[in-house]
Write a structure and sequence with these properties.
- With 327 residues, the protein is of the alpha+beta class.
- The chain has two domains: 17-206, Sandwich (Jelly Rolls), CATH 2.60.120.10; 216-325, Homeodomain-like (Arc Repressor Mutant, subunit A, Orthogonal Bundle).
- 47% of the residues lie in helices and 21% in strands.
- It has helices spanning 5-10, 17-24, 137-142, 156-174, 180-201, 205-208, 211-215, 217-228, 236-242, 247-258, 262-280, 285-291, 297-308, 312-325; strands at 27-38, 42-45, 51-59, 62-66, 69-73, 78-81, 87-90, 98-99, 105-107, 112-118, 123-133, 149-151.
- Strands 9-10-1-11-3-6-12 form a seven-stranded mixed sheet, with helices on one face. It has a five-stranded mixed sheet with strand order 5-4-7-2-8, with no helix packed on it.
- Strand 9 and strand 10 form a beta hairpin.
- Helix 9 (236-242) packs across helix 10.
- Mean pLDDT is 83; it is low at 8-15.
Length: 327
């Protein structure tokens, strides 16, 4: 019997809805920095909208301050800042905090950097970075994530992953060679997904909210239809028929699991797509409107401001100003 590799490659892999969601969230590297920090040292990371920032301690220790919280990372520990909140990291003693923009960063490639910073004291070695989410579902996901997620080597499933990846990252960071950027990028993706997966797996149903809807056979299918075809002029009747439910039962079950009506969700989903496009592309407002099913720029702009609270032009201007301030 011959091995049909084409059929095997086309076979869908069944996964938990959370796994499917994380797989759909395409991340783009903003930067990766391999750092050697010698006491005394202290630095400040500015807020980075739409970015997840992370730090992995390969050797030594580091203290973090985010809002009114202070915690320390030991060797092999990892922290993720899902919402891109600004924070301070230091040796725990240094009083002089240097902004990110003033650090003596050496650019190896466009996105891979090295940093040697501090005094003549004991050294800590870290890999730090930021990732940009381009999928609008991230907006909803970030709503249920905390300001930071800390992973220790001994913590459940993610702990073992962090330990293994940390050793690989340590080797790559110490011996920068051909392809190092690509390797570090993939390893960092694994760290981020492992951290989010562990956190989400530990939440109960009352905390996961709309994620439960993704697990429902029929409501999950309707969400996929909306996500995949946002430009289609869906009606409540069409969605209900597509998932084999009556109009009334579908509307009631959808609102129970998702939190709003199918038509309101469709509008919010379209606006989420538009929000991302305004920030991450140079497409005109009219082109974005047409892509998500609106026939005129005026109609789209009215709907967008009603949902987002700002006009398309304001969102694009604010994002451009925030990205310029981090450079």
């Amino acid at each position: 019997m011959s091995f049909d590799y084409k059929q095997r490659a086309a076979t869908r892999i069944e996964d938990h809805p959370v796994g499917k969601l994380l797989d759909s969230l395409r991340m783009e590297s903003a930067f990766y920095t391999s750092s050697v920090l010698t006491r005394p040292w202290g630095m400040e990371m500015p807020p980075m909208p739409n970015c997840m920032m992370y730090h992995l301690v390969l050797e030594g220790t580091a203290e973090f301050r985010v809002e009114n919280t202070v915690f320390e990372l030991q060797q092999g520990e990892f922290v993720l800042f899902p919402k891109g909140d600004g924070h301070i990291l230091s040796d725990g003693q240094c009083k002089t905090i240097t902004p990110l923009s003033e650090l003596p960063i050496n650019s190896v490639t466009e996105r891979y950097e090295t940093l040697a910073f501090g005094g003549d004291g004991e050294a800590s070695r870290m890999v730090c970075g930021a990732m940009l989410f381009q999928h609008p579902l991230a907006i909803k996901l970030l709503g249920i994530l905390p300001p930071y997620i800390k992973i220790q080597p001994g913590s459940r499933d993610a702990g073992g992953i962090v330990s293994s990846v940390a050793e690989l990252l340590k080797s790559e960071a110490q011996n920068v060679s051909v392809g190092a950027e690509a390797v570090i990028s993939r390893l960092a993706d694994i760290l981020v997904i492992a951290a989010m997966r562990q956190y989400l797996a530990e939440l109960d149903d009352s905390q996961t909210g709309w994620l439960n809807a993704l697990a429902d056979d029929r409501i999950g299918k309707s969400l996929k239809l909306i996500h995949d075809q946002p430009d289609k002029h869906w009606s409540l009747e069409e969605l209900a028929t597509a998932v084999g439910m009556s109009r009334t039962s579908f509307a009631q079950q959808f609102k129970k699991l998702v939190g709003n009506t199918p038509m309101d969700y469709l509008t919010e989903w379209r606006m989420s797509l538009a929000y991302s496009s305004l920030q991450l592309t140079r497409d005109t407002v009219l082109a974005i409107a047409l892509d998500i099913g609106y026939q005129s720029e005026a109609a789209f702009s009215r709907a967008f401001k009603k949902v987002i609270g700002k006009s398309p032009a304001e969102v694009r201007k604010d994002y451009q100003a925030s990205t310029e301030s981090t450079h």
